[in-house]
Design brief:
The chain is built from twelve helices and ten strands. With 276 residues, the chain is an alpha/beta fold. Helix 5 crosses helix 7. The C terminus is likely disordered. Bound molecules: adenosine-5'-triphosphate (ATP) and magnesium ion (MG).
């Protein structure tokens, strides 16, 4: 979707604090462009999920204070009512979280959960609903037959459960998908499969993705641009190539230096000699 990246889908300038504590996010300014994958990287506690919840209007209003503006598709999300936000969540902006098995309801079959997600934003016949479910499951490379739809979450692998969640999140073709540590709980093989899936969905549907992670390797593999969050502000934002190849800020340089590099263990000389 390289050509679609120029214009802004979401632009934000926000500050957030919880109760009377110091601000968690201070004058955080960033944009997500149409069709891009933007990485949001920062160490634990830097405020990544707080930023995601701010976009979705999911911060507890009684115990938090948010100031600023989040422009998305001609609206300032911070000015919308709860009813307007409900209409938008899951339809225009969707969320995928870290642990699929705790995000799915263990007591309900996959079919019931997909149906509820579809009915939240669409009206139509049961046949329309089943058709939409099957397409969504196929788009994440899962079986879409009745046997699969009858499964409970506990009858699936974690990777399959994460695919179901992604199918659910993309059922209504949202313009923006927020993936908050969505691959962190997965083993490396499943993680790379889910990353490839995100990339494929981004390419085939043009859906923009805010990919939140503290795992630099996964960020490098999927993102067009990367924003670095540190101590409540975005200290640097640039293309993946620039952030990895020529990080400008000291904190970004430190982050890059902390990336593990795989080096072969030195050969055991005694052992090698014995083998000759
Ligand atoms: N509901 C809340 N009430 C009070 N403080 C909170 C609340 N949620 C988060 N915080 C605090 O805000 C800070 C940022 O938390 P947040 O969850 O946004 O970080 P994060 O970057 O997503 O971390 P991680 O990588 O561990 O998921 C932390 O200090 C956390 O303790
Ligand atoms: Mg978080």
């Amino acid at each position: 979707m390289a050509g679609a990246h120029a214009t802004s889908l979401l632009s934000a300038h926000v500050s957030v604090r919880y109760a009377d504590k110091p601000s968690i996010l201070r004058d955080v300014k960033f944009e997500i462009r149409h069709g891009e994958v933007l990485g949001l990287v920062g160490q634990s506690g830097s405020g990544k999920s707080t930023l995601a919840m701010s976009i979705l209007g999911l911060l507890d209003k009684k115990h938090s204070c948010i100031e600023g503006v989040i422009n998305f598709q001609d609206s300032d999300l911070l000015q919308l009512s709860e009813r307007e936000l409900r209409a938008l969540r899951g339809r225009s902006i969707a969320l995928v979280l870290q642990s699929p098995l705790s995000s799915l309801n263990p007591a309900l079959k996959i079919r019931t959960q997909l149906k509820e997600a579809w009915r939240a934003h669409a009206s139509g016949s049961s046949a329309d609903c089943i058709h939409a479910m099957r397409i969504a499951l196929q788009s994440v490379s899962l079986p879409s037959d009745d046997d699969f739809l009858r499964k409970y979450p506990s009858q699936m692998s974690v990777g399959q459960a994460q695919r179901v969640l992604i199918a659910m999140a993309t059922l209504h073709r949202p313009a923006l998908l927020i993936a908050d540590e969505a691959t962190s709980a997965l083993d490396v093989i499943t993680q790379s499969e889910i990353l490839a899936l995100f990339r494929e969905l981004n390419r085939s549907t043009g859906m923009a993705i805010l990919y939140i992670s503290h795992d630099l390797a996964s960020v490098a593999g999927i993102c067009d641009r990367i924003a670095i969050l540190h101590q409540g502000t975005i200290v640097e934002c640039g293309t993946t190539q620039q952030i990895f190849g020529n990080p400008r800020q000291e904190y970004t340089q430190k982050l890059m230096a902390s990336m593990p590099r795989i080096q072969p263990a030195p050969a055991n000389k005694t052992h090698v000699a014995a083998a000759r």
